[in-house]
Design goal:
three-stranded antiparallel sheet, Serine Threonine Protein Phosphatase 5, Tetratricopeptide repeat, single chain, about 5% strand, two-stranded antiparallel ribbon, elongated, mainly alpha
Length: about 425
């Protein structure tokens, strides 16, 4: 719009100048070779000079176009090709994220022919191949990217992810080590080093790498707290095994700070306090945590600290006052009552468990034991044992990766070696009693 206005103004000015010149009276005498004399008007002379200058200017523009035209045409063609290539890359990315790997691969290959920098096109091709289980081609392309200084992060990360998919952890460690020498300060690399340390059960080194990961903001606070708490429990156990009691307590308390109501953290802190003969502190932790972490190990620790079975029963009864309807409380009271020979209270709580419809094998086994010890009735005891065989299994620590049951919580599953995958649940109950 501005250019149109500018041209209109220029034409208007030119028209005014021409009109003004036509109104001016005057002549110019031109002598040619001292022989002929020409007389022309001043206006005509000025217009002639202007037209001559315009013609010269147009000729110069024309010759400039002849010289620069092919260069400009090539540049325009290259720009159009680049725009087409970028458009194909955009379509390839959309196809990749929509799960159409074959289309993404084809579009990326076409895009690579239209652009000079093929880094992104190659990455899309490799990612599409990997998603389509063509790991051989993907590995080859990622390997080429890894050799490029600019594309190295894309190449190495792709190689690591392929190795992770195959669970080829020695290859993961090798590529991570190689990438570390190329770009040691990469935040994502610290996360991979942390995972590698966890796989090798080097929990203290993993905790150091976790701090770098947290500072880099590549892991959200909730996930960092989960990982940090699990690492702290593992470190606490190692320190306790080496006789470093104070360091073990510090690590267990750190796990509690990260996840205050997490059952494994509460159990570990109580066990370490008991090992260091800080019985009162352990009792306080159990009393404070029972409402949110009603776990058999906690009430058994409480019973082990009592001077007598009767005192143990009173402590458990007091412990369970705030959760009278909870099955874990019924089982804890019943167990303590049997140990103290308080048969009626034991039977009452066990029957409450059965009436709730959530009785597990241990409830029926405890009733069988009760029949033997209170009434010496072997027949009734056998009936309860028979019912126990068909009852829901007792809760245990189940690995969500391989479904293996464990009696104790472990940072790494002893079967599949996955980290922090254990939940407290019964194999026969769909709802989780305590998730990680």
């Amino acid at each position: 719009m501005l250019s149109v206005i500018r041209w209109i103004v220029q034409i208007a000015v030119l028209a005014v100048v021409i009109f003004w010149l036509t109104e001016q009276h005057g002549y110019v005498n031109i002598v040619w070779n001292d022989m002929e004399e020409f007389q022309i008007s001043l206006a005509f002379c000025i217009i002639a000079v202007f037209l001559f200058a315009l013609i010269v200017h147009l000729l110069l523009r024309f010759f400039s176009f002849l010289i620069r035209g092919p260069i400009l045409w090539q540049a325009k063609r290259k720009l159009d090709k680049l725009n087409h290539g970028q458009n194909l890359l955009s379509q390839a990315l959309v196809a990749l994220f929509c799960g159409d790997c074959a289309k993404a691969k084809s579009l990326a290959a076409s895009a690579g022919k239209n652009i000079d920098n093929t880094m992104l096109a190659n990455w899309i091709q490799a990612t599409a191949c990997s998603a389509n289980f063509d790991n051989k081609t993907a590995k080859e392309i990622f390997g080429k990217l890894a050799q490029d200084s600019e594309a190295a992060p894309l190449g190495y990360r792709g190689l690591i992810e392929i190795a992770m998919q195959k669970k080829n952890f020695p290859e993961v460690d090798r590529v991570v080590s190689e990438y570390y020498h190329v770009r040691p300060g990469a935040p994502w690399l610290s996360r991979m080093k942390m995972l590698g340390a966890i796989r090798h059960h080097d929990y203290e080194r993993a905790a150091k790498e976790l701090k770098i990961v947290e500072n880099s903001k590549i892991m959200n606070e909730e996930e960092a707290a989960r990982v940090g708490a699990a690492l702290s429990i593992a470190i606490s156990r190692i320190k306790l095994a080496h006789g470093e009691v104070d360091a073990s307590i510090d690590a267990a308390r750190h796990a509690i700070r990260l996840r205050p109501d997490w059952t494994p953290a509460v159990i570990q802190l109580c066990e370490v306090l008991v090992a260091s003969e800080r019985y009162r502190a352990a009792k306080k932790i159990i009393e404070r945590s029972w409402k949110d972490c009603a776990h058999p190990q906690l009430y058994k620790i409480m019973l082990s600290l009592a001077d007598s079975p009767l005192e143990g029963f009173k402590q458990i009864e007091k412990l369970c006052k705030e959760t009278p309807q909870d099955n874990a409380s019924h089982i804890a009271i019943a167990d303590a009552a049997i140990a103290a020979d308080i048969w009626g209270e034991a039977r009452r709580n066990l029957i409450l468990c059965i009436n709730s419809g959530k009785a597990t094998k241990s409830v029926f086994k405890m009733l069988s034991r009760l029949e033997r010890e209170e009434r010496h009735d072997e027949r009734a005891a056998l009936i309860w044992l028979t019912k126990a065989t068909d009852a829901v299994p007792d809760p245990s620590w189940i690995c969500t990766s391989c479904n293996q049951a464990h009696e104790m919580w472990q940072p790494n599953c002893s079967v599949c070696n996955e980290f922090n995958t254990m939940i407290w649940q019964s194999a026969g109950i769909s709802d989780r009693l305590r998730t990680m």
